[in-house]
Structure formats: structure tokens, C-alpha cells
Specification:
By secondary structure, this protein is mainly α. About 45% of the residues lie in helices and about 5% in strands. The chain is globular, with a radius of gyration of 23 Å.
């Protein structure tokens, strides 16, 4: 086996250097490549660029003399400078573009992927035997086969899914959940160097970013990632479940784990996260609904999305079952929350602008739902989520946005579009009270953009949604809207301007 191993910037944990038949040579030299062209091609969030570069440089510092760290314009140039014509191993990259690159380079051996619980062969064997690829069925498969939250052959507590216990609205009158604060890392000299470089690249006009670069909020090395995991398990997991779908304007993190960046950079392994959560439950440190909800996010949804990315094939990227072609407006592209009056959209957009992160409900039911109702191009929406979120990668966002958020695959991944009127946002958040729009109004100056947008979306796709058993009833509700013509004209005038 070759004696040089290439680490991508999302393969930064110890498992990616474990030797063996399916890993690099024990004494393999390591090469890491920092490619400037990645940032030149697309406008990423400044905090994301900072986190990725900081994490890569922290890993290089840990590896010391073992690593050759190359700063180059492209990966191809960097690999040529580092190893010349020598052979290289690399674990299966996480994007199709990166996989195409490594397969075009000649003497590069692609090893199996790491950083996930389920291997590609296992997923394919499961998927090939399914009539429909539903996450719940896959999640149960993972639980059984990997003995996660199981008591013998039965799910712990006798129930597979405790989602019904995890949909409570925020406590009435509370501004925050009053959860213990999450782990926050301290910046160091490497962060100072990264910030200096990013500032210089921007000044030189070489790259351009969106969003703000505040103090780094997420772990950039293995030690910090383990501290973040321990902080969540010991102090925040117990309060996670019940309100995991709730939104509070003044509490963006609530009891969420904030571990997605560490998992997606490879700093944490999913097995240690789910095993740690299960151990807390078995020791009586957290209720089952919180633990099951967290385990489902990682052993269920994260695994499911990773494998669908590869299983569906590259053509999935072009899915556009609803024929949406609208361009993303400038205020959205620039994260201009101050241009927005609708408090839910402004709050979610502001958090993305300032941190590059929001939890799953603002992503899905506010930002994603708004894009769906406006009829924006799903490929452009996918790219926006990929560039704008610190935990966003191609494999993460393509199924999540095309399938889950924008329903652009026509139901291959989910049974219905995930969108709603303002009543859902009002029930699950404190965002509607001070808002100039009213969730129960669909026409008029104070008409909620989500309430009106929901009915306009149903009207636009009435025939398709009317054939969906989960959408047929609300579609029939269109017949009871005497003000539908006025609503449609109102939404036509609203267009894609800031709500």
C-alpha cells in the first residue's frame, strides 16, 4: 500500500488515519491541501470559511512533522506539489465533485468512507428491498443492526419513535428555555492567522464572503469537539427533546447539541455520540424522549441523508418536480435581515447572517418554507443553504433541500411538502406577537406572508397536491376561500421582495 494519505478538510478526526485493510498504512505520510479556488468560485459564509480553515490548520498542527500542508490554488496543483507522481490513498470524499477529482488524478486509491455508522453496501442492500425509501424504516433498521437504544429485539422503552413527545411549543411567556449554555471554544493563534488571511484575501479582491465573522462558535479540533459533546450530554441533553421543534427569538440555540459541525468535519464519530447519549439514559441522566430524539437525528436522519445523496445519483441534483424557476432575490442572497419586516424571516435570516447556523425548524419551516412558497429555483436554494451554513456540505444540503425542504423530487424522499401557514409558526414560536403581520390574516396589509403564501402555493399546484393523500384535504379548502382572487393578486404583487 502506498505511503502517502490525503486528508480532505472534512476528514479531520482520528478515525480517518486508523490503519488496516480498509485504511491507510500505519506509517503513512499525510498530505493536506488548502485550495484557494474553493472560496474563489462561490461566496461562502465568512464564519464557515473561518471554521474550515481553522480546523484544517489545527489538525495539521496536531500531526506535526507527519503532515505536508500545502496552500495552493487548486487541489490538483497542491497534490502535485506535495507528492509529485507518487501514489496516494484517500478515504472516499463526501461530495461527487471531489470523488470525480480524485478518480481523475491517476495513482490515487480510494478507500471506503468513514464517519458514518452504515456502509454503502449495507444501505444498498436495505434500499433495494424497499418499496419506498422512508427514513423511519431505515432508522429502525439502523437501531436493530447496530444495537442502538435496543433491549434485546425491542426498542428501548417499547417505542421506536417518541416524536409525538418532542413537538411541544415553547413555554408560555418564556424568552428562553433557560438551558445551560452550550460549549463555546476559545480562539487561539491559529484563528488569528486565519482571520488575517481571510481579511487579506477580501482586501485583495481575490474572494468575497457573505455573513459576519464573529468569534469562532464551533470546535476546530478533536479536544474541543469532545468537550462540546460532553457538555451537551451532561448538561443539555435532558432538556433537548420536548421543545426541539420550538423557536424562541431570544434563544437561538435552546437545548440543541450544536454538534453538526464537529460531525461533518470528522472531528466526532456518530457512534460515540449515540453511544454516549444512550449511556446517559441508562444511567438515569436524561429522559428517553430526549435521547431518542437526539439518536434519531444522527443514527436516523444524518445517515439517511448521506446515503440518499449517493444512492439517488447525480441526476437528483436537477430535480424540479414543481417547475420552480424563481431567482433568489438580493436581500436573501446578502442575508439582509434588516430589510425584512416579517419577524420570523428576519430572526432566522439574522441568525444565519451572524452565526452561519440555525436549528432545523427555522431552516425547514421558515427559510425553506418561504423559498418553496415563493417558487424559487430549488438548485439555487440548495446552493444558498450549502454556502451559508457552517455545517452545510453538498451531501448534507442536496437531499435536505431538494427532497425535504423544496419537494423538488416530487415525493421520492418525503410524503408531503413541508410548508405551512402562519398558524404553525405562531403555535411553535414567540415570533408572531410583535410582528406587523397577523398569522390569521391572508389578505390585507397585515396578511401573513406564510398564510397567504401557503394558499398561493396550493393553488399553483392544485392538481398535483390534490392527488396526494396528505394534501388533498387542504387543497379542497381552496374552494372555501372567497377571497382567493384577491389573495393571488396580493401575492403576485409581493413577489420576491422582502416581506
Amino acid at each position: 500500500m502506498t505511503d502517502t494519505h490525503w486528508l480532505f478538510g472534512d476528514q479531520l478526526g482520528p478515525s480517518f488515519l486508523e490503519p488496516g485493510d480498509r485504511g491507510p498504512a500505519r506509517d503513512a505520510r499525510v498530505v493536506m491541501i488548502e485550495s484557494r479556488s474553493v472560496f474563489r468560485r462561490r461566496r461562502f459564509h465568512r464564519a464557515k470559511a473561518h471554521l474550515v480553515l481553522s480546523a484544517m490548520r489545527h489538525r495539521a498542527a496536531e500531526l506535526g512533522d507527519r503532515v505536508t500542508y500545502v496552500r495552493a490554488d487548486t487541489y490538483r496543483e497542491g497534490l502535485r506539489n506535495a507528492v509529485g507522481d507518487g501514489g496516494v490513498t484517500v478515504h472516499h470524499p463526501t461530495s461527487r465533485a471531489a470523488l470525480r477529482l480524485v478518480r481523475s488524478l491517476g495513482d490515487v486509491t480510494v478507500l471506503p468512507p468513514r464517519g458514518f455508522l452504515v456502509g454503502p453496501e449495507e444501505f444498498a442492500a436495505w434500499a433495494d428491498g424497499q418499496r419506498a425509501l422512508r427514513m423511519e424504516n431505515f432508522y429502525r433498521h439502523v437501531r436493530r443492526d447496530h444495537d442502538v437504544l435496543m433491549d434485546g429485539g425491542e426498542p428501548a422503552g417499547g417505542t421506536w419513535n417518541l416524536d409525538h413527545e418532542n413537538r411541544r411549543p415553547p413555554p408560555r411567556g418564556a424568552r428562553t428555555l433557560a438551558a445551560p449554555p452550550p460549549y463555546r471554544p476559545r480562539e487561539d493563534a491559529i484563528d488569528e492567522e486565519v482571520r488575517h488571511d481571510l481579511d487579506r484575501w477580501e482586501r485583495d479582491g481575490d474572494v468575497s464572503f457573505v455573513g459576519r465573522d464573529g468569534p469562532r462558535a464551533f470546535p476546530a479540533d478533536r479536544r474541543q469537539a469532545l468537550a462540546a459533546l460532553r457538555r451537551f450530554l451532561d448538561h443539555r441533553l435532558a432538556g433537548f427533546g420536548a421543545h426541539e421543534d420550538a423557536v424562541l427569538a431570544a434563544d437561538g440555540t435552546m437545548s440543541h447539541s450544536l454538534l453538526s459541525t464537529s460531525l461533518n468535519l470528522g472531528l466526532l464519530d456518530p457512534a460515540e455520540c449515540v453511544e454516549g447519549a444512550e449511556a446517559v439514559w441508562r444511567e438515569g441522566g436524561a429522559p428517553l424522549n430526549s435521547v431518542e430524539g437526539f439518536v434519531r437525528q444522527i443514527a436516523g436522519w444524518r445517515e439517511y441523508v448521506w446515503h440518499l445523496y449517493w444512492y439517488f445519483g447525480e441526476e437528483y441534483r436537477a430535480s424540479n418536480a414543481l417547475g420552480h424557476t424563481g431567482a433568489l432575490p438580493d436581500w436573501w442572497q446578502e442575508l439582509d435581515a434588516d430589510a425584512v419586516s416579517a419577524r420570523c424571516v428576519a430572526t432566522a435570516l439574522r441568525q444565519v447572517r451572524d452565526t452561519g447556523w440555525t436549528h432545523h425548524i427555522p431552516r425547514l419551516m421558515i427559510l425553506g418554507s418561504y423559498a418553496l412558497q415563493r417558487g424559487w429555483d430549488p438548485a439555487a436554494v440548495t446552493d444558498w443553504f450549502h454556502r451559508g451554513f457552517v455545517d452545510g456540505y453538498d451531501w448534507v444540503m442536496l437531499p435536505n433541500v431538494v427532497g425535504m425542504s423544496q419537494y423538488a423530487d416530487g415525493g421520492r424522499m418525503t410524503t408531503k411538502p413541508y410548508t405551512s401557514g402562519g398558524a404553525y409558526i405562531d403555535r411553535m414560536s414567540d415570533l408572531c406577537g410583535p410582528c406587523p403581520y397577523r398569522p390569521d390574516r391572508r389578505v390585507g396589509e397585515d396578511a401573513c406572508p406564510f398564510t397567504a403564501g401557503y394558499w398561493a402555493l396550493l393553488h399553483r399546484h392544485r392538481e398535483r397536491f390534490g392527488r396526494n393523500h396528505r394534501m388533498a384535504q387542504p387543497v379542497r379548502g381552496l374552494d372555501r376561500l372567497r377571497d382567493l382572487p384577491a389573495l393571488l393578486e396580493q401575492e403576485r404583487r409581493r413577489g420576491s421582495g422582502p416581506p
